[in-house]
Structures are given as structure tokens and as C-alpha cells.
Amino acid sequence: MNDPQQPGRLTPLARRIAAEKGLDARAMQGSGYGGRVYSYDLRDAPASVPSSASFPADVNPMGQVLGAYADTEPLSLDAFEVSPVPCREKLIEFPRPRAAHGNEGAAVGGRPQACGAPVVVDAAHGSGMISDGAAQMAPAPVKIQIPAQEQAPVQAQARMPAPAPAMSTEAMVAAVRSADDEVAGVLRMNEARQSVAAQASRSSRETASVTQHMEMDITEMLALHKRMNENREKPVTLPLAAFYLKAMGISIKDAGRLRLRLAETQDAFLMMEGANIGLQVDAGDRVVTPVVRDADLKTLSELAADITALAEKARRGDLTERDLSGGAITLLDKGDSDVYAFTPIINQPEAAILGIGTIYKKLVMTEKGIENRQFIMQSLTFDHRILNGSEADSFQRRLKAVLEDPLSLVV
Amino acid sequence: MSNEYITAADGPDTREGFQRFAYHYSQPDKADDFPGAFSFGDVEPPTETDLLPDDDIGGSITPNIYTTSAYEYDVAVIGSGPAGYTAAIRAAKLGGKVIMFEKEALGGLWLSAGCIPAKVYLKASGSEAPDLQGALSFKNNIVTKLTSNAARMLRSTRVRVEAGEAVLKTPNEIVCRGRAYTAAKIIVCGGTKADGSHIPGASHPEVCATDAIFRTSDLPKRLMILGGGSEGCELAAAFAAFGSNVILVETQSRLLPGWDAQVADAIHRSLSDAGVKVYTGVTIDEISDRHGKPYVITERGGVLCDKVLLATRRRPEGSFFGSLAGDFRIENGAIAVNEYLETSVPDIYAAGDITGLGGHTHAAYRMAETAAVNAMGGKKQIDLFATPEVIYTRPEAASAGMSEEAARGRFKDGFVVGFCPLSENINAIISGTPEGFVKVLASRRHGELLGVHIVGANASELIAEPAALMRMEVTLHEVVGEIVHAHPTYAEAFAAACGNAMGSFGR
After folding, report:
1. Residues of B near A (CB-CB distance < 8 A)?
2. A56 and A32 in contact (C-beta within 8 Å)?
3. Nearest CA of chain B to the CA of A77: how many Å?
4. What is the mean pLDDT of each run of 10 residues along chain A (411 residues)?
5. Enzyme catalytic residues of B
6. Which of B165, B203, B334, B496 is the most buried (most CB within 10 A)?
7. Which among B363, B362, B381 has a CA at the least distance from the CA of B371?
8. Beta-carbon separation of A72 and B411 below 8 A
9. Model pTM greater than 0.80?
10. Could you give the ipTM of this predicted complex?
């Protein structure tokens, strides 16, 4: 028990609190047998590294400075799902003590922990900040520059985890280092990353998702697309996404169950008004899904204008609550990538998400002989709690039929 | 050694055996004749402190420091219940010269009216043909065994035992049957007794306390139990199983005040299923007499009973107060103590339920250890956090830590609740006991366990793990991520409830 390195010298709770407060557990003497450290030994201990000193960003969105341990602070359950630490993304690189032969002598004189003291590379300031006086003996770390991400505005659609007490970065570094010396660094998640992570994991956990791929021959549609863009007087080009949105709008109007979502109580389905389709945009570490309304009733030009307007709003960060809500299904168009087929994650509480892959060519046998045709793969991930396989099939077949015979898109 | 403290065996049942023990004990050459006691021959008195190497007592123990002074004994203990005999043995093992006084039977209410008879009656009431006579003789056998075990331990540690009522004269002087004994420190472990003074007519001969009901061999046809705490619930369950018509009355709005409401609900249901008529939120106006039988008048009408059991509030057994009666500070019907278990009277410590810190035997043990160490010069604080509370009903209930209501008061929304019904526990299904649940409360911040509440066949055994983990400050993260439970066992239900609290597992 008196060996400070021995695991279990701190109770698990004390270990968490010490890490959160950034206390050096090795120096502590607790009130338990053999100096075992209990949580109450730490209650009055001040945080050794005030998080605000080195991390001005360690202020949560509610404006509270994350401070000392207080067990009465109300927290959200999300604290268990992700660690919602609103701070900038930055890599804390662990220095490698072995490489620094010159420092070994110093480490003998000092306490051994000095050798491995973490050094914080603050990407926002671009300078190495030394977190602890003893770290002066540490070798210079490899400086890693990570561009600081802009603080993303809180997206109404992103289920924003409630503020939770953040472990200071130093404390996290100390905890990780003591637990696993294979880890080379810590990259803290920013708000947007955490929100995406929370949303994705929640969807994966809660939905009974099935993904089906269906190949579509879009040679005709591409020909139509080309002719329409060539004939346009205004210099606005119709994106392919407008065609997909229109086709999806028609298909979900026909296959009504695609507009269902599961009620919170899990014992009823809610039918959504109109063929509203979310358009998922992957912007760096942020994912936003603005909604195009009544896609079945709008013309391709109107849809193209909607897409442009929403994209502009997303870029400026002025998407409103209404822009982000009311979707029945989401479109994730990866046509500009080389991805052939994939398994998108449902944007809850919707019933399904449609992924569109890249356009590819292949030789096929038709009535006219061997032809070079263009294809895309549609990947539909649907929630099996809401849709049966056959219902998903009929939607996919309908979508295929509309896109392969694109006249219905323009009439 | 003189035999001046031998008295005639004129007391009731167990008292007689105890006095025979006291007599033999006082004469070492005859001690081995004491029936039921194991013989260890002559035991060397402890020559040095009997401390474990890492035993943390928060101070230094100097054996026999006081006996060099004006006092005959280092420590005198009043009462031989679980607190009393533990304090006496602990102080003696620390090198003290110890004397212990008991006016009735060795073991106190622990043996006569507490958890031992309750557990025995629970066991007996679960047999195929439960009967009170069988339970009574079973209980008496057990009590005899335990008494002789306690006697043996006292003998081997050379605690001097005095039969007779001890009365305090000064903070360092006790008078027992006309002789004065002086001690440097006194630990009072006098226990509590049922208090019916708030009910008019509670002096009716058929109105009894728990110690008397455990001596009864005639099954009361109509038994009314006043007080829906753990004691009342246990006896209601036992006597309903033996065949009494039991009415359980609680003045508060639900059974088991202070317990988690879900536990109270489950126990209420199980008692109702067992045929106990449970009335809550009913006050007793008076107990009157109808042809020698108690007639209990409540605000909802009168009931004629054969016996009425007082399981309501208790007050300290204060017969030892003597001339110091006014010096003890009494709070909420208990002797006030500080964290070192010191009373308001210098040199006098208190331990056991007389302190109001906990009515359970295991709490008494913990307090007695602390009081004994401090009386011997240590400086140890009492901490009864996560002391399990158990109710021996069918199914059993057990809890450690705070109730959901208490957690809400203290943590607002800063805690999570995990739940696992035993109907989802494979061993409970196999064993045919799917009634009950495990409920876990943990803080949202660090996941430390705040309270664990169990209703079910083995609740009293199952609580051991969560109580230990709470004491050691193990959090949900370790329970779910690191600790392995055997399969299929009831204990898995605790892990499942923790998983449920984490929100990581569906159920």
C-alpha cells in the first residue's frame, strides 16, 4: 500500500477526481490504511492546474467555468456516452523520455515523474505551453500543429449534450499516460466532433438498421441533365442532387411508409407532412442536414435554387431551426467521391437515409447490342423497426424506375 | 479472586444461564464446567497491544496507562449487547483492563429481540409447516449457542463480567449491586427500548415490545403491529406465516419511512400477498380494554386484538444514568455523540443504537470498535457510510447508501438510476424466485455508487458486494467494465442494474 506506484492506492473515485482536478496522485497521502486516498481526502484540494489558466476555451457553452469538484452539480446522462468537453481540438504529444539521454541525470535528482511530464501544444496559440514546473526538465516535444477549428454554432438538429464537468487536458493526459504508455498523444474533441459522435453512436445504438444496395442505370438521366444544363439561359447549373431529390420526393409520396418516424413512446408511428428531404452535408468535422421541403412538388430548377440557398446559409452558419427540422428522409450524395456503395447512418428519428455513390461505366447487353452505360449505386439504410424489407424494396424500385426513365422528373 | 458478585439465579430464562456463566467465570478453576462453553484452558492475558501492523487507529495506544492511576479499570462497559461485548473485547485486546456490566441476559436485544430472532423466525416461517413453537425452540437453541460463543470470547480476552444493574455515580464511577467500580473511561452500550408513551393505554398487559413477542409461545389469533418500520414488517411477515391474522399500522403515508419508495412498495405488496392487512397514514388514538383484550381505537375505527406489538419509536435504555441523568445531551431520543463517539459527559463514550446512529447489529459492531479504540487513547472517527440495512421478510430487502428521494434532494438531476428486475436474472428464474429487483443510484459526474436497493430472495447476501464497493469508492465504470460476476448468479443482477445505469446496455 505504501508503494506510490501501486495501483489501487487511490480509490477509483479518487482517481477520477484527482485526474479531473489535475492533482498529482503520487504525492498524495490519504486517510485510508497505508495512506490510501479516498474522495473525501481530495474534496478540499484545489485544482493544481486551473483549467482557465492554460485553456481559455475550457468554458462550457453555458458560460460556466469548469471548476472544482462539486458533487451537487447537475449533469447530463450524455456524460457517459461521450465526454462533451467543449474545447478546441488540439493534440497533446507525449514527449519520449528515452530519446532524451541528456536529461536522465536531472531526472534522478528530481522526482521521476518530471521526466515524462506532458507538454501541451496549444494549436490556437501555436506555442508549446508547459503545464507544470517540473516539465522544464523534459525534452522538447515534437511540435504538432493542428489548425484550430472554428467554434461551430450549436446546431439545433445536433443533439447537443448538456455541459458536463470537463477533465482538464493536463489531467486527461496524466490519466492516459499512467494507464497506457503505448498512447502517443491526446487529441481532444471539439464541440462539433462530439456532437457528431454522440449523434452517430446514438443512431447506431438505437436503430435496427439494414442497408440495401440497388444499381441504377442513369445514362438517360445524365443525358437529360446535360441537355438541360446546356439549354439554360441563366448561368445556374442544375446539380445532379436536384434530380435525386425530385426522384426521392416522387418515390416517398408513392411509398408512404418512408415518411414515418417512430414516436418517442415507441408504440406508434408518426406520418410526416410532405416530401421533405434532408440533404446531408459533410463539412470537415461538422455534419449538417438542411431540409428541402416538398421535393415532389418543386421543379428541378426550384430544387436547384433551394440547394444553393441552403448551402449558402450553411456556409454562413445561419441555418434556422426550421431549415434543420421536419425531414422525412435524408439524402447523402457522395457522387463526387470514388465511393461505389456504402452504409450511411440514419439521421434519427427518420426512417431511412439514401446514399448515392459515384457514377461508373460498364458494358451491358441491351436490345441494341453491347452498350457502354453509366450507373450509380443507391444505398438505402432503413430502420427495420419502421420499415419492412419489402417496403424498402418497393421504394428503391420506384426510385430506380423514376431515375431510369427521367421524363417523370420534368413533367 | 473473590466471588462477591455472584447472585442467586432468580431471573427469567436466559438470565439464569448468564448468571451461571458469570459465577463460573469469576472462578477460573470452574470456568471450564460452564455448559456450552468451549474450553481453551488458561489463556495468557494480553501482554502487549494486539494490533494488526497496518491497523489504523488514529492515535497511539498505551496499554494499562490508566491503571497506574487511581482507577481500577481502564474501560468499563455498560451493556453486553453487540456493541457492549465488542467494545469490551476490543478494549481488552488493545491491552486494557476491562469490566462489563449486564443487568439482564448476555447479548442484549441482539439475541432477545433483534436481528437474530428475526432471522430465525424468517427461516422458520419459510418451512413447509411453519409453527411458532418450533420457531421458538429453534431460536432458543441458536441464542444459547451464540451466548456461549460470546462468553468464550469474553473469557479468552479476560473481560470481567458483572451481572447486575450498573448505575453511574460520577463520570468515572459505576455502582453495581452496592459496590463501586472506578474506570478511566466508560462506554455506555445500554441499547434502547420500545416507547409507547405517546399512545394512551399502551400499558395494557397484552401490549408488548419485540423482546416479549419473541418469548411468546401462544400464537395470537389477531395481532396488531404498530409501526411499519423494518421490525414491524419482519414480525408481520413471520406471524402471518405462522397463522396469525396480522394488521400492520403505520402512521406515516407509507411503510418503511426512510427507505427507498420502490423497496417500500415491494415490501407492502409482498406483505399484502402474505395476508397481512397493511394500513398506512393511520394514527392510533388509544388502546382500551375489552374483557382483558386490547381494543385499539384508530381514526378509522376500533379493532379488537389478542396482542398488540409496539414496533414504533424507541428511546434509550436510561436506567444507568443515575446521578448523571441531567448531564447527557439527548437529541431525537438518542444520546448525542460526536464523530469520536464521545458523549457530552467527559470520559464517557456511547456505542450501539443508543446513539441513534444506526439500529443494526453490524452498525453497533463498527461503533463499538471505534469507541473502544478511542477509550484506549486512539482518535478514530466513526463513519457508517454504506452500512447495509436489511429487512428479513419474504422476499428480503436490503439497501446501502441513500434512497432515490434522498439522492434527488441532494443531487437534483445529477444522478442516474439503474434497474434490473430479477425476472430478467437467469438464476432467479432457475431458482423460481423472480420477485424483486436491484436498483442502483450513481452520480452522473463520476459514476460513484450513491445507493443500492435490493428486493429479492437473497437480498441480504447480495448487498455485501455493493456495500463493499461503495465503501471502496468503486464507480459504475469499474463495475460494468472490469468486475466479472459468475454466471448464472443473482449477483449478476447488480452488474446488470449498473449497466442499465450507465445506459450502455439496453436492459
Report:
1. 54, 56, 410-414, 416, 443-448, 472-475, 477-478, 502-504
2. no
3. 7
4. 57 84 75 80 63 30 29 29 34 48 36 36 36 36 37 39 57 74 74 82 89 92 85 73 91 83 82 85 75 88 87 79 85 87 89 92 88 92 90 92 86 72
5. 487
6. B496
7. B381
8. yes
9. no
10. 0.70
